[in-house]
Hints:
Elements: E1 5-12, E2 19-26, H1 33-40, H2 49-66, H3 74-87
Antiparallel strand pairs: 1-2
Amino acid sequence: MRCLKVELEVTLPSEGRDRTFKVAIKFIAQASLYALEEALDGRSQVVPADAVQALDVVMRHLPSMRYSKLFVSVLAGVPAVLKFLKLQSCPEI
């Protein structure tokens, strides 16, 4: 497969001046979902990390566009929860 590359400029509006970024997207590899299926069915001992990572990105994309993040993880989110509760006039935990 030939190397595909797309370059574009993205402008993000802000209150002050707009910020412009140059973005380059390059096709690197293709993930094999067949290899993942083989691993899930027990026919292969090797779990393809690239296919798992690709599925992770795809499955997180739509929710990230629809919903705001409240916590990144349970451990990383604990200080954020405490701050949120304090903002809601709750007693100290």
